[in-house]
Amino acid sequence: MSVRGKRYRQASEGLSQGGFYAIDDALKLVKQSASAKFDETVDVSINLGVNAKKSDQNVRGATVLPKGTGKTVRVAVFADGDDADAAKSAGADIVGLDDLADTIKGGAIDFDVCIATPGTMRVVGKLGQVLGPRGLMPNPKVGTVTQDVAKAVTNAKAGQIQFRIDKAGVIHCPIGKASFDEAALKENLMALLDALNRAKPSAAKGQYLKRLTLSTTMGPGVKVDRASVAG
Predict the structure, then answer these.
(1) 117, 140, 158: which is the final residue of a domain?
(2) DSSP 3-state assignment of 67?
(3) What CATH number did the domain enclosing 165 receive?
(4) Domain range for residue 122?
(5) What is the pLDDT of residues 91-129, one digit of tens each?
(6) pLDDT surpassing 90 at residue 5
(7) Nearest Cα to Cα of residue 146 among 112, 110, 119
């Protein structure tokens, strides 16, 4: 059996089969399951009560995690003039326009978030086949196409995450690192749930937050009792 398989089995031994845990207990178990030599990411999968096939039930957005993601984020910004200066002052790692586009076309993508002003989308739009598959295409729905590039850069650096339902109606998001204390992870999770509730489509009926599962990069899933995160 592989090393990962052994660790996964050992981490799973303390879990109740099919059981649900209050959020505080779930976070404690998730942290205990982190056994890799690196600082594992803590992820949450949230099944939403929406029909992902219907455009009026799409759920997409972004929110800043109050305790950050634990990851150093490199930010690229498409801007010129005063906007470029504002982006640099806010801490953007890469700022440019046609020159940045040429760099990306050449295969150099050394950033985690891409931001653009509306006026630069004439250039950025041509990069869809490169940025799109990597989840880096700027989009106004998640605040990465904006005139206020300074705020967007600040948010990205502070731990903003993006969320979007997949074809099965599930949201997958990081909420921090296994090295975070339980209170920090809980605060981040609650911030994400608040953002999801605000993004609830008016067409969605019935139970919206149907199932929550926490896990680390290499660990088993821990099911969360919905009642413990209701508020």
Answers:
(1) 158
(2) coil
(3) 3.30.190.20
(4) 75-158
(5) 999 999 999 999 999 999 999 999 999 999 999 999 999
(6) no
(7) 119
